[in-house]
Amino acid sequence: MNFNRHNLTCYLMVAVAILIASGCTSSRVLEERDAREMSSSGEIYDVAASDEEYRIRPGDEIEILVWEHEDFDVETTVSRTGSITMPLIGEVSVSGMTSEELEGELVERLSEYIAGEVNLAISIRNLDDMQVSVFGMVERPDNYPVVDQISLFKVLSTAGGPSEEANIRSIRIYRQNGNPNETIDLTRHLDDGSIHTSPILVGPGDIVYVPRRQNAVREMSDFLRDAVMLFGIFRIFN
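The structure assignment produced for this chain is given below.
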């Protein structure tokens, strides 16, 4: 067989480089795809800028204040069937309504019990938007409730911390509302002791993705093992 060992070695080195590059590229594609799927899966909702535009859904918290008629005040959660319950009025179907539409419905129904003008104040809080989603290589991937900006390290701790397969050098933070995304090297903050003073914060609607550690060393080792066997075959037949 007329194989040149020097040329074969070159071919093998090129193949190893291609293997590593393709693995890294595939990983980035998977991470971006997972992040897109996560943000569009319905687990995180974009609440409209005003209550008039936002439509009520099951799980929302609603506070209703009726001026000068405190007996009708209520703070409740929209049931799975999309309704709330108010004193005397009873059950009111609210799912799909805007704040303005709900106000009109309640004014009409309260006018049966209140003489004169009925004045309401309605506050709607969507709990699904008040959370940070943590997924990837963590012990407990899930959606975690937050009401304000919170340290990335605290969020990861709440999720049980990174797993053994986690690549903590490339933690992705996908920001809500078009804010710049970030890639964080957690080891840098562990090495310099800046965990408690780090300015890295995440807030409601953000997504934290902890990627899997690339096992390029093992892949290369397997490849070189096969290469050694191949060289052995060449020696036998030459």
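Interim note for the steering committee: The longest strand covers residues 61-66. Residues 219 and 225 are 10 Å apart (CA to CA).
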